[in-house]
Amino acid sequence: MSLRGRLATRWGSWGEAVYAGGAGLVAIAVAGSVAAIVREPVLFPSLGPSVFLFFETPLAANSSPRNTLLGHAVGIGCGLGALALTGLWSAPSVTQMGVSPARVLAAALAVGSTSFLLAGVRLPHPPAGATTLIVALGLITGTQALLYIPVGVAVITVVGFSLNRYLGEPVPAWGPHGGRKARVAT
């Protein structure tokens, strides 16, 4: 039985909370350590919800490495596309210039297109909606800094997968257990 299972058997939901909280602490500490070493934004807000999914619902489709890595990649791409479409590619961030109609449009386009694409290809990963906002709002800018977003996602995915496996949690190596869900006929 996995550590998560033993803790849950012993303490119920508080045992699961100990597992999720402890493992989440380790995953974020590793990403934060990498960020401190390379002095780049490897640690950013949307990693928190991804880590939460890894340890709270490790067998859910949206917690799989596939959905995490591809979901954030789609979010980055849609955020960059929204910046290009709205002419905000080189504009100061929303924290510097404030909320403008163009910034609202970029945010809406980024989240809408990310949601559309991830739902269309059946790769749900809600934290990707936060990643696309980080990009569309200009909170992480510059080519080098933007390249570290996937590094951060990869770090927490590897740590989440490895830690769950090491502690006996039967997590999928790539996609969710059981493969893709069959489409429901309507």
Can you walk me through this structure?
This protein has helices at residues 3-11, 13-38, 47-56, 65-86, 94-97, 101-120, 127-136, 143-166. With 186 residues, it is mostly helical. It has one domain (3-166). The model is unreliable at 179-186 (pLDDT under 50).
The count of DSSP E runs of length 2 or more, i.e. the number of strands, is 0
- How much of the sequence lies in strands comes to under 5%
* Unreliable sequence segments: 179-186
Helix run count: 8
Largest sheet: none
For the structure shown, list the relevant keywords.
186 residues; mainly alpha
Give the helices and strands, then pairings:
Layout: H1 3-11, H2 13-38, H3 47-56, H4 65-86, H5 94-97, H6 101-120, H7 127-136, H8 143-166
Helix pairs in contact: 1-2, 2-3, 2-8, 3-8, 4-6, 4-7, 4-8, 6-7
Give a brief outline of the structure.
With 186 residues, this protein is mainly alpha-helical. Helix content is 67%, strand content 0%.
